[in-house]
């Protein structure tokens, strides 16, 4: 626990980020290059969907990341409310914008894929509707962080909102099982094994890892920028000679001292 606490310290995190961001960015570039090549030049077209099935290699990883990022935010919210960790709210805030971006990509590619398959750009399918709700939750969290000026109050409010919104994640996951929907059921993570041919599965797996490392790279950079922004804010307050705003605020500010 002490080791984890030391590595999660903002100052230690900045030192780790300097090492891991270039490594993660390199892995992202390599995996994206390999994944796109496999998806567009090696993977065969589907016998029913034809070439439009290649949208899957963008749509499915984006959908996975949309839910994974919310899981990361939920963990950070618990860190803010339960453990009062100094890095938790700095980790939660940038994840909302990244989650909204991947969810928007999921919705956009899903619409492009749905038009030739279902004959409509959008249907009020249970899976699609619950993902749209997830996108609105992300936007609400982004707006909440921007609306509340006090960082401590914003962190607590966003953490509560995040935990309440977490109920939507199992709804997204099991919507195809609970309701009769147009969306196909799980075909990769299933008890009987993947239902996708290996020639299509492996490009999808590579693209999933590429998207994951892309998120990790952007996330580490965003947390680093948030820590530096908070340090700059503290220095600006000190330079202006502003009085402290209570012990909670003082503790929050002290966590981001160089």
Structure in a nutshell:
This protein has 258 residues and is mainly alpha-helical. The protein contains nine helices and no strands.
Can you describe what's shown?
The protein has 258 residues and is mostly helical. It has one domain. 76% of the residues lie in helices and 0% in strands. It has nine helices and no strands. The longest helix is centred in the C-terminal third of the chain and has 43 residues. The two termini are 23 Å apart.
Give the topology, please:
Blueprint: H1 2-7, H2 10-42, H3 56-81, H4 88-118, H5 126-147, H6 151-165, H7 168-178, H8 198-240, H9 247-254
List keywords for this structure.
mainly alpha, 9 helices, globular, 258 residues, single chain
- Rg, nearest Å: 21 Å
The overall strand count is 0
How big a fraction of the residues is strand? under 5%
Number of domains: 1
Helical percent range? Answer: over 70%
Terminal residue distance = 23 Å
């Amino acid at each position: 626990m002490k080791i984890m606490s030391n590595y999660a310290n903002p100052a230690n995190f900045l030192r780790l980020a300097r090492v891991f961001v270039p490594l993660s960015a390199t892995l992202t570039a390599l995996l994206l290059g390999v994944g796109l090549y496999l998806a567009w030049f090696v993977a065969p077209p589907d016998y029913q969907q034809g070439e439009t099935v290649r949208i899957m290699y963008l749509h499915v990883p984006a959908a996975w990341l949309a839910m994974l990022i919310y899981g990361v935010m939920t963990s950070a919210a618990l860190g803010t409310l339960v453990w009062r960790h100094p890095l938790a709210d700095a980790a939660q805030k940038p994840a909302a914008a990244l989650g909204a971006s991947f969810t928007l990509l999921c919705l956009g590619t899903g619409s492009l894929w749905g038009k030739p398959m279902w004959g409509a750009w959008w249907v009020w399918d249970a899976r699609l509707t619950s993902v749209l709700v997830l996108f609105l939750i992300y936007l609400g969290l982004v707006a909440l962080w921007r609306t509340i000026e006090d960082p401590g109050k914003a962190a607590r409010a966003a953490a509560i909102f995040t935990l309440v919104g977490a109920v939507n994640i199992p709804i997204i996951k099991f919507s195809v099982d609970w309701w009769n929907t147009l969306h196909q059921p799980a075909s990769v993570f299933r008890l009987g094994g993947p239902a996708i041919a290996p020639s299509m599965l492996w490009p999808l797996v590579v693209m999933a890892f590429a998207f994951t490392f892309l998120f990790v790279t952007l996330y580490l950079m965003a947390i680093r920028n948030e820590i530096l922004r908070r340090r700059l804010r503290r220095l600006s307050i000190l330079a202006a000679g502003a009085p402290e705003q209570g012990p909670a605020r003082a503790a929050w500010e002290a966590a981001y001292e160089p």
